[in-house]
Structure prediction request, 472 residues.
Amino acid sequence: MATETETATIHTNGGLETVSEEEGMKPRPADIEADMREMERRKRVESIMNSRLFREELERIVDGQMREGSSTILQQLSDIMGMPAARIGSVFKSSNCVVPINDIRGVESMGYEKGEKILRCKLAATFRLMDLFGWTQGIACQITARLNADQELFLVNPYGMLFHEVTASSLNKVNMQGQIVEHGTTNFGINNNQFTLHSVIHAARPDIRCAIYVAYSAVTAISALKQGLQPLTKHTALLGEIAFHTYAGALNEPEEKDKLLRSLGPVSKVLLLSNHGALCCGETIEEAFYHVTHMVHACEAQLKLLPVGLENLILIPEETRKAIYDAARKPSGEGQEAASAQTADNKEGQLTKTPKWRVGGSEFEALMRMLDNAGFRTGYIFRNPLIKGDVPKPRNDIEVPPAVSSLGYLIEEEELFKQGIWRKGDPRKVGDRTRWLNSPNVYQKVEVLETGTPDPKKITKVEIVTIEGNLN
Prediction:
């Protein structure tokens, strides 16, 4: 008979081990030890694979290897992942159907100032939208975005690239004089004649942070009309005050610059340039593109109505136009109704509000979702993601003890009573009340008389009544 100090020989899958009872009665078998080590290794691999910088760097290396025509990297990935090399190649080739907008990956993003990468991605995505909608005219058109208010630096598309080729890293950084401060990833410069037009407006109007030149055929056709853009549709009303300037194609003289600024004025953000198209501006990139969208739609509608004759058209009155404009400029999504209501599971008392959008913000975010779904990889940070991010909270038995489950019977009984399906005192429903629930306890109100007083009063108390369940 063994004692507590004696040793015992324990048979494990790995062989015979002699341990004392004080060291452990149930030592871990060798195969379990191997499984534990494998789990630890998988955890480390999973943490590395979940790293965003690692994934971006891996995609960059694979893309570079595939452009060079090397199949070594695909074979290595095939050995690691246990997949055929042809299948892995098809996965990575599918992402190359379009040039990604956000091509700033991994450590490269650390070389940009705070917020510059996001602005570059937004501006490059705007070029892609203009190209997808067919609103571009070759390589001459230009879009500028002010980098910050302190330094007069701007992001400009390289002169020589088509709009569908522009990426976040290819944008040039220039100063107010049009001198390139920092080249993008291309050898191209900028269109200095066009940038003069943009720089004059940026210098005179600090509130304008983005300017988009539109030379779309419909816009150019309307800019050549003597009547200009008429208030025929809601799109025209949403543009607000539309300025007009007789443009010669360049701003070489100071007098021409002064005339341009006088035509634009201190308020207008849309400028029709005679025979040359329009310049749509905004406090944000979203607002500038919002103006471009409504300008194109308004010009196309007017062109379709021109054969009828302006005398046969109904123009929007000035008061109505201002009302439409003011209503559209109010921050959308204020959520007055949602702010007054709280969700049932909101225990902290926080109000449920929808995000307040600036002009064109919600439309631009929807277009970013469209680009991401098409594989453009915009790099846009969504304010209001499409899919709800909150994971449903699991039911906790500690927060909801079993005794509370009997309240469900009372709530169900009250609902049946309100609907008239069940009436108290109905002998036909007695059997229904004796069914088993999660708990056989039922809370029942009982009126009792006070004790110890000469004038007893009735007091209502809640007692727990155990009802035998009907198991039939």
In short: Residues 106-327 form a domain with the L-fuculose-1-phosphate Aldolase fold (CATH 3.40.225.10). The longest strand covers residues 441-449.
